[in-house]
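ok so i was messing around last nite and threw this chain in just to see what happens. nothing serious, just curious
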Amino acid sequence: IRPDARLILVGDPGQLVSVEAGAVLDDIVGPARGAAAGNPLTDGGSTAGRPVADASPDGRPARGGPENDVPAAEAASAGSDANSLPPGGLADAVVVLRRNHRSGPRIAAVAEAISAGDADGTVTALRAGAPQVTWWPVDAAGPGATDDVRDRAVGAGRAVFEAAAAKDPAGALAALARFRVLCAHRHGPYGASWWTRSIAGWLAAAVPGFDASREWYVGRPLLVSANDYGLRLFNGDTGVVVADGPGGAVAAFDHADGPMTYAPTRLGTVDTVHAMTIHKAQGSQFTDVVVVLPPPTSPLLTRELLYTGLTRARANVVLLGTEESVRRAVERPAGRATGLRERLWGDADTLRP
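result:
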């Protein structure tokens, strides 16, 4: 990097931290995130003297320009003394983008409350979230908890299977992107593997022709778990098995230039992905999402996990979990003592969210 280069880091510090050590982006943003969170932009209002674009006809904020990007120190100066940051230095280099363009306003309201660590606000937003947000405040492993999810999963899986059976890779991939069950755990009644087996069983019972007894069955959703540079398939890519000729099948994956199909024998490590972990879902979005929360005693239940799961949905999200689990998640941010935040912010670090 040249001495006169300008480095711009873009990301969401509210999401899950990396698998490896550290929480670099959250440490860099530091208290600036909390300062700006205390001064949310609202339609028709203004923050720190900067105008806010009017709402679009569907009620979502209009796409704005640079006038909607708020430097953290400037946003803090419009708030209370408790949210003040000294001007200059790193505070002037952090810009909080508050316009949401990836999900509806109800989902965004829940995400805002979670990110702010506001458990009461999160519960209120969840209860008021219909029709975009549906909350079933029950134990996901309890009796009857899966009934609503079953109907949604069967409807989504049927669309994938019918397109795959019709030898339509593009249609099958598009259908696959419309729905996903996301779990905190890998195993057990709250885990992705349990839900994947359950959904496959529901589909076999409800969809004529669906047969999950073979390894490469038509309609099988796939998740790549290891990079293959030769095939241009990478960890986290999703695909689906589609029919190809009499009794044959190929695996279809999306690429920039359209769907690509591969003989199943060419694939490396892939998993069946009727459901997946929230960690694996980072970087992806789906039209509709079901988030399965574990019990409040789970060590994986954190604010970042709940925020990441809910924000994978573009249009609709169903949250399956008790109020105790929701509150526990919101009140428990992931903590990693790296020392980077303190070195960057020093005495200004008084607003840890």
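not much to say yet. The longest strand covers residues 313-320.
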